[in-house]
Write a structure and sequence with these properties.
Blueprint: E1 7-10, H1 15-23, E2 27-30, H2 53-74, E3 82-91, E4 94-96, H3 102-112, E5 116-127, E6 130-142, H4 147-154, E7 176-180, H5 183-187, H6 191-200
Helix pairs in contact: 3-4
Length: about 210
């Protein structure tokens, strides 16, 4: 087991990000933020007026990391680097969020059918008064999907906790003809960029 100085806090509920960190041997402790509740989310994920998709994901990741640091300090937890991330699916400049229901999931998948869209994942690492941040962009090309295929996929559990209504690591992998970019970035945590930022914060990956 690594020393406490080689442990990070992960400010994310995503099981995929946890899986990816384990893949590269990074030890982490979850430092979860509220996404809902009587007082609302700890960090707003509403797109601001005239905010571009690139600016949006960068801001949300940065605000998550900074808020998590305040939580760490308030709870008097050991000081460790904090990793936060945000992923958006973007089609023709429009952000596609997580579908709230089957109708939204169907509409998203039909809009992606036969098109190339972008997946933007911003990562932010906060440690003491320093912040390291980057955004990775991948192009994802979908095959043309039949209505029956879309309906069958949206009848599964997969679309409903994922930006754009699909996950590349699941059954939707059969929809994807071509990607240019980072497979792990499309999953939600680009590992090359993540390892680079963590090394800047003093975390060894190898």
């Amino acid at each position: 087991m690594k020393s406490p100085s080689q442990t990070i806090y992960l400010a994310s509920q995503s099981p995929r990000r946890q899986e990816l960190l384990r893949q590269i041997g990074v030890e982490f402790v979850l430092l979860l933020l509220r996404s809902q509740g009587p007082r609302g989310a700890d960090v707003s994920e509403e797109v601001q007026l005239a905010e571009s998709p690139h600016d949006y994901v960068a801001r949300v990741a940065r605000e998550k990391a900074c808020f998590a640091q305040r939580v760490m300090n308030a709870r008097q937890l050991p000081h460790c680097p904090i990793l936060a991330a945000d992923t958006s699916v973007v089609l023709d400049g429009k952000i596609l969020g997580k579908p709230a229901n089957a109708d939204e999931a169907v509409a998203m998948l039909e809009s992606l059918s036969g098109c190339t869209h972008q997946v933007l994942t911003a990562i932010a690492v906060k440690h003491h008064d320093q912040l390291w941040q980057t955004t990775q962009v991948s192009d994802v090309s979908f095959a043309t999907l039949t209505s029956e295929t879309v309906q069958a996929y949206c009848a599964t559990h997969e679309p409903y906790d994922k930006a754009g209504g699909y996950g590349i690591q699941g059954m939707a992998s059969i929809f994807i003809e071509h990607i240019v970019g980072s497979y792990s970035g499309i999953m939600g945590l680009p590992l090359f960029e993540t390892a680079t930022l963590l090394r800047q914060a003093g975390i060894k990956t190898l």
